[in-house]
């Protein structure tokens, strides 16, 4: 049996370190695009519903504007939280897709909560 120190080339170390960073970037981009698409659809649906209520006379124009503004702020919080959560989840749970998905869900809930607080304090 031989004993001694085994040398590892610098190239192997660089490749090993850079691969998770590349996956993290693509996970964040995918998470952000999904969050923007999903939240955009939800915001559109909610604002359309509030507009229909305004047309029926259930709410006034000022209530409609406030509802739309609050919904956009909470949506922005959700998208921001989902994006940051995707990155954190992928780092903490290094299983492809699973970490990003868990992080996006937790981050989205946290972002929406913070967005609600901000919207209610502004309006």
State the main characteristics.
mainly alpha, elongated, about 120 residues, single chain
How would you describe this structure to a colleague?
This protein is an all-alpha fold and 123 residues long. The chain has one domain (24-122). The chain contains 3 helices and no strands. It has helices at residues 10-56, 61-92, 98-122. The chain is elongated, with a radius of gyration of 22 Å. The chain starts with 9 loop residues before the first helix and ends with a helix. 26% of the residues are buried. Mean pLDDT is 83; it is low at 12-17.
SSE layout and pairings?
Elements lengths: L9 H47 L4 H32 L5 H25 L1
Number of helices: 3
Distance between the termini: 75 Å
Low-pLDDT segments, ≥5 res: 12-17
Q: What is the overall silhouette?
A: elongated
Write down how many β-strands occur, each being a DSSP E stretch of 2 or more residues.
Answer: 0
Largest sheet: none
Radius of gyration: 22 Å
Number of domains: 1
What do the pLDDT scores average to? 83
Percent range for β-strand residues: under 5%
Share of helical residues: over 70%
Q: How do the helices and strands follow one another from N- to C-terminus?
A: HHH
**SSE class:** mainly alpha
Summarize the structure.
With 123 residues, this protein is mostly helical. It has one domain (24-122).
């Amino acid at each position: 049996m031989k004993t001694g120190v085994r040398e590892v080339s610098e190239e192997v170390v660089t490749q090993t370190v850079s691969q998770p960073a590349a996956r993290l970037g693509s996970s964040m981009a995918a998470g952000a695009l999904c969050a923007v698409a999903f939240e955009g659809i939800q915001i559109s649906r909610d604002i359309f519903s509030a507009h229909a209520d305004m047309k029926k006379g259930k709410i006034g124009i000022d209530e409609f504007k406030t509802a739309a503004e609050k919904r956009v702020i909470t949506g922005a919080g959700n998208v921001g939280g989902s994006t940051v959560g995707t990155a954190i989840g992928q780092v903490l749970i290094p299983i492809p897709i699973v970490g990003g998905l868990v992080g996006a869900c937790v981050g989205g809930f946290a972002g929406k909560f913070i967005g609600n607080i901000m919207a209610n304090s502004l309006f």
